[in-house]
Amino acid sequence: MGRLGLVALWSLSICLCLFANSASAQLKQNYYANICPDVEKIVRNAVQKKFQQTFVAVPATLRLFFHDCFVRGCDASVLIASTSSNKAEKDHPDNLSLAGDGFDTVIKAKAAVDAVPKCQNKVSCADILALATRDVINLAGGPSYPVELGRLDGLSSTAASVNGKLPKPSFNLNQLNAMFAANGLNQADMVALSAAHTVGFSHCGKFANRIHNFSRSNTVDPTLSKNYASQLQSMCPKNVDPRIAVNMDPNTPRKFDNMYFKNLQSGHGLFTSDQVLFTDSRSRPTVNAWARNSAAFNQAFITAMTKLGRVGVKTGKNGNIRRDCAVFN
């Protein structure tokens, strides 16, 4: 290949790299410094008020962020309400269990931001959700961390787009790794983000098969602690309302900590997709390390959340700043 050909190939590779990173490149920590300089304080105060009303705001907001980013990227498309002509993401079966307190946290924070004349309609719903997520984690005892900002709100939200984009409680390690890798996240990121299950609750219907009809040879999933399985059976007997809620973390359900990993070590993972992180030898060392060292887990979680926040960011004509987070402009 001649020198000109090499130069052209090098230029093409540079362009492709720049294109691949263009979304995350526009994000920066002080994006609103000259637009709405107090945005982080405003959001924090609104989130704190919501947190004081109900702890559910913590897992609800955190889960909302995750479900948003894994479908079409972090663009607040999960906040859009359905209309007579469009069934939106939030009404897909996988999103029907998203707690209303998560949506309300964002709505309250958006209202607080827009109440400041300089900030009105200047801060995206996607960025408000990202900030609110950081704040609920910290309010529950988890780490605080700088949030990259500059996302635009998405212009599309369809229930159909959710299909196959969110991990299921029955996933094994290969399935989890593949889904997270599709979003630029590695196994360590996946294990760290799974620990969001240290707060919040699930419904009996999501894990009933593990305690009542696991397989022909085992009624109960043998990876479950026998005592824990008995507790779950008493809380979720056969034919119970599948919407009955059970804490994801049976020990410290209202604290964001590394107890999640200690639970896995003792067979107290609620979902198959939780317990497999310990039973599979490829991820077990990470579980053991973070069960011992909460500081190492916190740092890994911050890294994973920062990477998650860069997924599918909308820029330019691909997005805007919504006046109402639930409605397209």
From TrEMBL:
Binding site for substrate: 167
Chain positions recorded as Ca(2+) 2 binding sites: 198, 249, 252, 257
Cofactor(s) this protein cannot do without: heme b; Ca(2+)
Residue ranges occupied by any Plant heme peroxidase family profile domain in the UniProt entry: 26-329
Catalytic activity line of the entry: 2 a phenolic donor + H2O2 = 2 a phenolic radical donor + 2 H2O
Positions bearing the site annotation: Transition state stabilizer: 63
A GO term for molecular function: lactoperoxidase activity
Residues engaged in binding Ca(2+) 1: 68, 71, 73, 75, 77, 89
Keywords: Calcium, Disulfide bond, Heme, Hydrogen peroxide, Iron, Metal-binding, Oxidoreductase, Peroxidase, Secreted, Signal
Pfam families associated with the record: peroxidase
Catalytic residues (UniProt): 67
Principal localisation: secreted
GO biological process per UniProt: hydrogen peroxide catabolic process; response to oxidative stress
Binding site for heme b: 197
Entry EC number(s): 1.11.1.7
Cofactor binding, per record: Binds 1 heme b (iron(II)-protoporphyrin IX) group per subunit.
Task performed by this protein: Removal of H(2)O(2), oxidation of toxic reductants, biosynthesis and degradation of lignin, suberization, auxin catabolism, response to environmental stresses such as wounding, pathogen attack and oxidative stress. These functions might be dependent on each isozyme/isoform in each plant tissue.
Family membership noted in the UniProt record: Belongs to the peroxidase family. Ascorbate peroxidase subfamily. Belongs to the peroxidase family. Classical plant (class III) peroxidase subfamily.
Protein name: Peroxidase
UniProt source species: Punica granatum (Pomegranate)
Organism taxonomic ancestry: Eukaryota, Viridiplantae, Streptophyta, Embryophyta, Tracheophyta
